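Recap from last week: sequence in, structure out.
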Amino acid sequence: MSSPQSHLGLSARSEVAVRGVALDLPDTTTTDLGSTIPLRRPGGAGPSADGHVLVDGLRTTIPINPASPYRLRDGRLVRTGPDGGVTDLGVDVATVARPAFYDLTTADGVPYEKIARLHGDDVLATTVVQTCVRYGEQDRCRFCAIEQSLHTGATTAVKTPEQLAEVAEAAVRLDGVRQMVLTTGTSNGRDRGARHLARCVRAIRAAVPGLPIQVQCEPPAPSDLAALQELRDAGADAIGIHVESLDDDVRARWMPGKASVPLSQYRLAWDESVRLFGANAVSTYLIVGLGEDPDELVAGAAELVDRGVYPFVVPYRPIPGTLAFDDGDPAPDPELLAEVTARVAKVLVAAGMRGADQAAGCAACGACSALSAAGG
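Predicted C-alpha cells:
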C-alpha cells in the first residue's frame, strides 16, 4: 500500500510536471537560470525547457514557467499564494550540478555537450540522428521538437559511434554516469534507424563494457524485425518503442506520420522485443493530455503490462517550437495526471514491474514521469 509520503510525492510531482516552477532571480532576465537550476535541457525530441532536479531523492524534470505558483527555495518545494503567502509542500528538492564532461571536446572538435547530455543525476542521453522523415508539417508529431535544437546549434545532426563512445567513457569516469539512453529520429529505411543505433551500441560497449544501455526507435518494418535482434546482439540491455497513444483517432490528430504505422505493427515489435530482451526490459510512452479517454488509457496500459511492456506515463507538455505549442494546446489537469499515474502504477505494482528494476532507459531513470513516486 502507498504511504502518505508517496501520495504527497505523486501529487507534488504531478503539479510541477504540468505547471512547472518559477525561479527566484535577482532581475527579470532569464540569462541566469543556470545559477538556480544548473542542469537544464533547452530543447530536443522529448521534454524540453526543463530543469533536472531530485524531488525526495527521485529524478525529476520540471518545466521552467515564470507564471507557476511553485518555486524552489532553500532545498524545498514551496507554493506562493495570491496574497503572497508561502506554503512549504513538505518535499525536499536538490539540484544537479553541471557535469564535468560538458567542458570537454571530442577528438574531431565537437563539444561533448552537443553529443550527449546528462539527465537526472546519472543518466547519459542522446539522439543519435537529430532529423526525422516525419518532421514535415503534415506528418510531424505535434508535441515533438526533435529538430529544434539542431536549428539552434545546440547539437549535431548525426552522432558517430566513435563520438558517443568517447563521451560515454568520460561521463562514466568523471561524473559517475550509470546508464545511457540512445534514441533516434526515424529514417527512411525499413529498420527505421535501428542499425545505426546498433553500431553506436557496439562502440559504447567496447569503450565502457559495463554501462547499461537502452535504445529507442520506431517499430522496424515487419519484414525487417531482424533489426531488433541486431540491437540485442550489439549489447543493448533494453528497448523503448514509443506509441504515445493507443487511440487511433488521437494518433491521427497528434502524430499523423506515425499513425500510418498500424498498432498491429507496434504489437508485433513489442512482442518480438519482449522475446529478445525479456519482460520489463521493453517500454513505451503513453502521454496524458492528448484527448484519450482516461479509462481507455489505463486499460491500454494494463494490456501492455500483460505483454511484458512497461507503459511510461508522462504528461503532454507545451514545448516552444512544436505545432501543439503554436496552436495553444494546454497541458493536462494535474489531478488527471496524478489519477491516471496512480492507476497505472497500481497495475504495475500488481504485476511486479518497476521502472527501477530496469537496467537502463526512461522508466529506469523515471525523471519525466511521476510513476516512481507511486511505486511504479
